Amino acid sequence: MDMFFRYVGENWIYLIELAYQHILMVLLAILFALVVGVPLGIVAARVPKLANLILGLANVVQVFPSLAMLVLLMIVFGLGFTTVVIGLFLYSLLPIIRNTYVGLTQVDPAITEAGRGVGMSSLQLLFRVQLPLAMPFVFTGIRVAAVIAIGVATIAPLIGGEGLGREVYSGINMDNPARLYAGAIPAALLALLADLFLGKLQRRVGQGKAA
């Protein structure tokens, strides 16, 4: 461990840069997944005939081996940052679509009927009643997607990406445990912190709706 702490002490600026790149890739992927996934979850909830198709396609992407997926994307989009973000976006879709769908379908029909009774339109019901009540489920999807994306992002260097995975693979190739740990430990900490932070947000949203 002395070698690890010495290496971190000598290269902490570089490691911060790698962590920033790692976080940036994940944040962009989650943002794009929200922009696409939440509307798809809404469509699945409001048009039951499309639910199996939408969830089925998203599930196919999710179970596809991550390295194989990134290699296929690399063939189309080339090496680098963009390909990694697209891959992370695809892996983040299922948790967000599924949890948006589940959250909306779990809304008490009596609440929906009460909204209709006071003259709300379908869009008003969706944005003022149903989506707010489904937000704890949506945050669960974001939480799961973030942890998955942080893990998958560690293989980004294999297709020309950056991030903490660069230190992991450098450590493996050079038989240097200090570099390996300098990439693996911060990546694991990022996943834990993301899970804790988003878990707190999820509980706050849930408590707010309960109140």
Automatic annotation (TrEMBL):
InterPro entries: ABC_transp_perm/SBD (IPR051204), MetI-like (IPR000515), MetI-like_sf (IPR035906). It comes from the Bacteria. It is a multi-pass membrane protein. The keyword rRNA-binding does not apply. GO terms for biological process: glycine betaine transport; transmembrane transport. Residues 19-202 form the ABC transmembrane type-1 domain. It is found in: Cell membrane; Membrane. The chain crosses the membrane at residues 23-47, 67-91, 137-160, 180-199. The keyword Transmembrane helix applies. GO terms for cellular component: plasma membrane. Keywords: Membrane, Transmembrane, Transmembrane helix, Transport. Belongs to the binding-protein-dependent transport system permease family. PANTHER family: GLYCINE BETAINE/L-PROLINE TRANSPORT SYSTEM PERMEASE PROTEIN PROW, OSMOPROTECTANT IMPORT PERMEASE PROTEIN OSMW. This is Amino acid ABC transporter permease. The lineage of its organism: Bacteria, Bacillati, Bacillota, Bacilli, Bacillales.
